[in-house]
Amino acid sequence: MNSKPSRLRKFILNKLEKPRKSYQQRVYNNLDRLYGAIRPGDVVLVEGRSEMSRLIKLFTQSNWSHVTMYIGKAWIDPDSKQKDSYLKRYGKDANHMLIETFSGEGVIASPLIKYKDYNIRICRPYGIVESDLRRVIEQVIGKRMNIEGFLKQPGRGFGCGFIPGSC
Fold first, then answer.
1. 110-162 pLDDT tens trace
2. Which residues have a Cβ under 8 Å from the Cβ of 53 and sit 6 or more positions away?
3. Four-point Cα dihedral 111, 103, 49, 51, nearest 10
4. Is this structure's pTM higher than 0.85?
5. Tens digits of per-residue pLDDT, 24-59?
6. Sign of the dihedral defined by the CA atoms of residues 52, 58, 64, 66, in that order
7. In degrees rounded to 5, what are phi and psi of residue 50?
8. What CA–CA distances, in Å, run from 156 to 45, 72, 101, 147?
9. Residue 82, class by beta-carbon neighbours within 10 Å (0-12 exposed, 13-18 middle, 19+ buried)?
10. Which fold, 15-152?
11. CA 138 to CA 11: how far, in whole Å?
């Protein structure tokens, strides 16, 4: 689909995702300590660098603009279909994977090292049973989302009317 509204949405999203020059990392992330502390199921809050991140922080009145879930090496476990491709693509970093959503890309897996130079915070679910945690991770890994579908839903994101003919 290459309609004018689709191209306009893509143009706007690309502009909003460009990194800002004024980003300041306030804390150095020691990856060895981070890898030793983080566990599958932990939520990683990220202060993003893009204009979209700045807008999210403004509207949510939060320091954080992005959220991911740490899944560790769930992608490279022996039963995983993606095992070989992730090992080839990320090498040893495939042991420390996140699941996250990006506009235009949907739900993707990324190595934790991607956020080495960002301000981040780790949040751990309290009191969750191991079997429930495994089920949550399996559900998250299986999800797919397209932000354009989200934006077209009335009352969500920009919704109908933001881009003529988008409904």
1. 899 999 989 999 999 888 888 888 888 878 776 543 333 444 444 434 333 33
2. 20, 47, 65, 66
3. 180
4. no
5. 777 888 999 999 999 999 999 998 888 888 888 888
6. negative
7. -85, 170
8. 22, 31, 16, 11
9. middle
10. endopeptidase fold (from Nostoc punctiforme) (3.90.1720)
11. 33
Nearest alpha carbon to residue 143 among 96, 97, 109: 109
Q: Is the dihedral of CA 96, 145, 130, 64 positive or negative?
A: positive
Torsion of CA 61, 66, 67, 72, to 10 degrees: -150
Q: For CA atoms 107, 111, 117, 121, give the dihedral sign.
A: positive
Q: Domain-by-domain residue ranges, the chain?
A: 15-152
- Report CA torsion sign: 122, 60, 148, 139: positive
Which residues lie closer than 8 Å to 160 by C-beta, 6 or more apart? 152, 154, 166, 167
User: 87 pLDDT band (50/70/90 cuts)?
Assistant: confident
Residue 99 has pLDDT above 60, yes or no: yes
Q: Would you mind telling me the total number of residues written for the chain in this entry?
A: 167
